[in-house]
Amino acid sequence: MALEIEDKFDVPVDYEIPELAGVRGCAEVVGPKSHQLVAIYFDTADLRLAARGITLRRRRGGADPGWHLKLPKAKGVRQEITHPLTRSTKIVPAELATLVLAYTRGRDLVPVAELDTRRNVTWLKDADGNTAVELADDRVKGTVFGDEPRVERWREVEAELIGADTAFLRRVGKRLRKAGASPAASANKLSRLLNGASQRVTAPPALAAAEGTAGEVVLRYLAAQVAALLAQDPRVRRAEDDAVHQMRVACRRTRSALKAFKRIVAVTPETTALQEELRWLGNELGVVRDLEVIRARFARHFAALPAELVVGPIRARLGDDLLAKEQQGYGVIRETLSGERYFAFLDSLDALLAAPPLTKVAARPADAPLAAVAEREWNRVTTAFDVAQAEPTEAAREIAMHDVRKAAKRARYTAEVLGMRELAKLAESVQETLGTYQDGVVTQELLAAEAETARQAGEDTFTYGVLTGLERGTGERAHAAFPGVWAETTASARAFFDARR
Hints:
Blueprint: E1 2-10, E2 28-43, H1 48-51, E3 55-60, E4 66-74, E5 77-83, H2 94-99, H3 101-104, E6 110-125, E7 131-144, E8 150-161, H4 166-178, E9 182-183, H5 189-194, H6 214-237, H7 243-260, H8 269-304, H9 314-336, H10 340-354, H11 367-389, H12 394-417, H13 421-456, H14 462-500
Antiparallel strand pairs: 1-5, 1-8, 1-9, 2-3, 2-6, 3-4, 4-5, 6-7, 7-8
Helix pairs in contact: 6-7, 7-8, 7-12, 8-9, 8-10, 11-12, 12-13, 13-14
């Protein structure tokens, strides 16, 4: 797996590559070297991958023959996942087909196009002899498959960053543009070739609200969260670092927005059902996320403890055993993300963005109605706190404070929608302080259960007591700090809203 950072340029057939040795930072130009590349591209019949800027190909020739899956991460940056070349030219390797299920949703992947490219590669070296930028000058013959195949020919130049900073790449691009190149009109060769293809492209839905309205702000946020969820899907399937957390956060933010902005996006049976599905998926992801957090927490403890305080096979119980459970959890998640319920859930997200049930308030200018939502959500936090403090016992108050944390998280997400960073930070401080305490309580309960298992196995449980003490201390410090955090936060929040009136 690798990240591609590159600039693409459209050039005329008679374009002459300019002298690049004079580019600042370039000590040597090596090449060109010629390759013949033949790539067959796979997609659904309605081109769902192309619509999202995803390419899946089988390529022979050049320095890296094989299967390549390219997933967009940001403008000019794509994540590339490779697989060795297989004998079959018509069947996508299962590993790669699985990674695009969030887009294909079970539909067949079939050959849709072929690109036959004559590539001349030039390498720009730095003073240490390392390749800084690779320049590819491509003459392309593209064929769109179908009942009536269509052929197109063109030339383009790609400058890919290899071992330098992006400033070097910008300088190369500037030199190419001065010689007559223009930024590519298409993100990649395939999208250029398929532009105007007879097949229907299932593009992401356009925003259904006028610019500057409350509806536009909320829908743009919802669209960003749906895009984030889809982007994390292949990363979760590969168990990449932090992917489960980010996918779960996208679920939470989407669900929170539907709740907070119900005066903008109306409550309907469909949106109510969608919220339940967001909760379902978040819970499915939560099992692995909790294990990841706790395992990392124990790893930090072990790294900080003197060796003489770590006795018995506790590292295995709190490390290897939890890792095994985590891996089992990933197996469950992969099944979930490959099931019909998940595909239907994704379809419902698309349907929401394509035809949102907007209210009359959604058509108003954004400022007034959305500011009112932010204040209402913050008031939910203070109300939850008052309810918790009115509980007659300490145990009941602790349980009720969990509702304060949830309300603070929703207030934070709402403020993020509106670009109210100051308010979002205030809500986050409440959420994080209460979360630190709650995490300590949960971890102590897990330690008690693991210690009992170890005791029954005849193992020394001394270190379990040490870890419990550390967790208790962390929780108590957060508990003691909360009144001060709350007083400071509520005062700042009042000042924030007073200043906006």
